[in-house]
Amino acid sequence: MTDINQLIHAYVTEGACWHEFSIHPLKDDNTFDWHHCRFCGMSEGDLKIGEDIRPDYSTPDNFKKLTDKLFGDERMYEAFEYHAGTAWANSGTHQYMMQWLFSDYARFVALFAEFLRLPETVREFGYKECSCKSMGWDIAKCHQCNGTGKILRPWAKLVEEENHGG
Ligand SMILES: [Zn+2]
Ligand SMILES: [Zn+2]
User: Fold this and answer.
1) Distance of CA 11 from the midpoint of ligand 1 (Å)
2) Domain ranges in the chain?
3) Contact 115, 78 (CB under 8 A)
4) What pLDDT digit, counting tens, does each position of 7-57 carry?
């Protein structure tokens, strides 16, 4: 199963790399080893100062990035609130729902990952329009969307891969 922070990273950044740096010896007779991401090939030296390689979204700074993004997706936020409301009702807490929801970042992050993994969330929010539509290409021949006119958003792609044993 995908790390929940990786799943949320895909949501917040719309698909930025979940870097994994490892040593790649250079070919030929060069003796230097460089640390490069095995997914995107980026060098560790290209990281911005203070950039989190694999952000933990339950820390205050990263939590803010998540909520900034989520508050901008109004319908999705409402659906998440509904999902969280069920957990709140089942928790037996005496706190108000919003107080409860925002009082524990780690719980919020876990609940949000759970929400992203729901089939109805993927169905409802997991797709974006393929560029073939706006570019006026022949949708039927588009290899990106296979003629459907829509493609999975990066987080939804991760969820689908989990569901198909990826
Ligand atoms: Zn990378
Ligand atoms: Zn397309």
Assistant:
1) 16
2) 4-18+54-163
3) no
4) 999 999 999 999 988 765 555 655 555 577 888 888 878 888 777 889 999
